[in-house]
Design brief:
Number of helices: 18
Distance between the termini: 38 Å
Keywords: Cell inner membrane, Cell membrane, Membrane, Transmembrane, Transmembrane helix, Transport
Largest sheet: none
CATH topology: Growth Hormone, Chain: A
Order of helices and strands: HHHHHHHHHHHHHHHHHH
CATH class: Mainly Alpha
Membrane topology: Multi-pass membrane protein
Number of strands: 0
Structural class: mainly alpha
Number of domains: 1
CATH architecture: Up-down Bundle
Shape: globular
Main location: membrane
Radius of gyration: 21 Å
Subcellular location: Cell inner membrane
GO cellular component, one term: plasma membrane
């Protein structure tokens, strides 16, 4: 790897690192903040996450089409970074006053704003960096591991920060956004040298504009709908389960602050293990296939959720939490490989944002509220039993509808380009 290419690799990695530092800080500690600082019950907390999901539903189709038309241009990514810059001031000076005026109104506004940066914005970040790394012949999973490293760092330092000052989490997000903005501004994406066939294929792809017909034909591909169902079963339920699991875990401690700190340590170990699996995931998924990788991720999630319902010793819950270190790399790498092998790569951002993020947010907007009420009604343990079987149903149905990429002919693969 020459010096220029090596520098670019670290630039991509740095962008992943600081974006997912923000992501991990908020999603790991927002449940604690909503419960302890904002003093919201689980149903209103669920409304915050639902508002984030519903806002993303509006944003994702727009973001996807815009990013596919922009290609390697950075304008939309820059807008997401601009929103990230104001997380600290928003939470410190606006969120609590809005909740005090009206809890439901405040939850909706707060969730909608955070979605600009996270639930909606993550699709822009992932799609842009995946396209850029593919253009420069990097393995997506190897660059994406920086996001896992960020998650480990955030979990380790976040627990200390949150106990000392709950608002410091969000100001750390603002500082990370400043660094992310600098990395994005300095990034120069250049096409690497390719073989004659690769260069010809790339030129043809770039010179063929994305049309409305291309986008409409995505919806005619049965694999797209199977993929959406699979994403609800895996990605949606992953987030729904994790939204309030920190509060469930902390409830086993006499001192909730102690529980929060221990959870942050466990989460830190989990995401560092995740980074290690991320290195191996591309090789493993290439061996078993992207569709099988998604099915396996769904099985691991099912085991993790149902195990958390029955294994209620602290050390057992901690061990079960670490299964996420296997699940996340399987899911993330399989998603990107499935999209680029089954669908027209010109539409990778659209398929990613609609098939992954849009479907995921539909699920979150529904199941965050449903599970929030269910936790109140029957408790976490019974709620987790129900959730585990919902996961299993979605994974089975999605797998039955999706085509395996190895059985996808060139004509099927390019249905979206018809």
């Amino acid at each position: 790897m020459n010096n220029v290419k090596q520098l670019k690799f670290w630039n991509f990695g740095g962008m992943y690192y600081f974006y997912f530092m923000i992501w991990a800080l908020i999603f790991a500690f927002l449940p604690f903040w909503l419960n302890k600082t904002a003093q919201l019950d689980t149903s209103v907390s669920g409304l915050v996450f639902s508002a984030m999901a519903i806002t993303a539903l509006v944003l994702e189709p727009i973001y996807g089409v815009i990013q596919d038309k922009l290609g390697l241009k950075k304008y939309l990514f820059g807008f997401v970074v601009l929103c990230l810059l104001f997380i600290g001031p928003f939470v410190q000076f606006a969120f609590i006053p809005l909740l005090q005026i009206n809890a439901i109104f405040g939850a909706i506004v707060g969730g909608a704003y955070l979605s600009l940066c996270l639930n909606g914005g993550v699709g822009v970040v992932e799609a842009y960096i995946e396209r850029s790394t593919r253009e420069n012949n990097y393995e997506y999973g190897h660059v994406r591991l920086f996001g896992s490293l960020a998650g480990g760092t955030a979990a380790f330092i976040g627990g200390i920060m949150f106990v000392k000052n709950p608002y410091s989490i969000f100001w750390a997000c603002t500082i990370s956004a400043i660094i992310l903005g600098v990395l994005l501004w300095t990034l120069r994406v250049k096409k690497e040298d390719k073989t004659t066939d690769q260069a010809s294929e790339t030129t043809e792809e770039e010179e063929t504009p994305v049309t409305k017909e291309n986008i409409i034909n995505v919806f005619k591909n049965r694999s797209f709908w199977g993929f959406c169902i699979m994403m609800i079963g895996i990605a949606t339920m992953f987030d729904v389960f994790d939204q309030q699991f920190p509060n469930y875990f902390a409830s086993f401690f006499n001192d909730s602050s102690r529980g929060e700190l221990v959870f942050s340590r466990i989460a830190s170990v989990q995401v560092f293990l995740e980074a290690g699996f991320m290195i191996l995931a591309p090789w493993f998924i290439n061996k078993i296939g992207a569709k099988n990788g998604l099915i396996l991720a769904g099985i691991v999630l099912f085991i993790r959720v149902i195990g958390s319902a029955f294994f209620t010793e602290i050390w057992m819950l901690a061990t079960w939490r670490l299964l996420a270190a296997i699940e996340m790399p399987l899911m993330l790498v399989s998603i990107m490989k499935y999209i680029t092998s089954v669908f027209d790569v010109r539409l990778s951002a659209t398929v990613y944002m609609l098939g992954f993020n849009f479907a995921k947010q539909i699920g979150i907007s529904i199941f965050s509220v449903v599970m929030g009420y269910l936790y109140n009604l029957v408790g976490f343990q019974q709620g987790y039993v129900v959730l585990s079987f919902i996961i299993l149903a979605f994974v089975i149905i999605g797998a039955m509808i999706m085509r395996s990429e190895k059985h996808t002919t060139d004509n099927t693969k390019n249905l979206t380009a018809a």
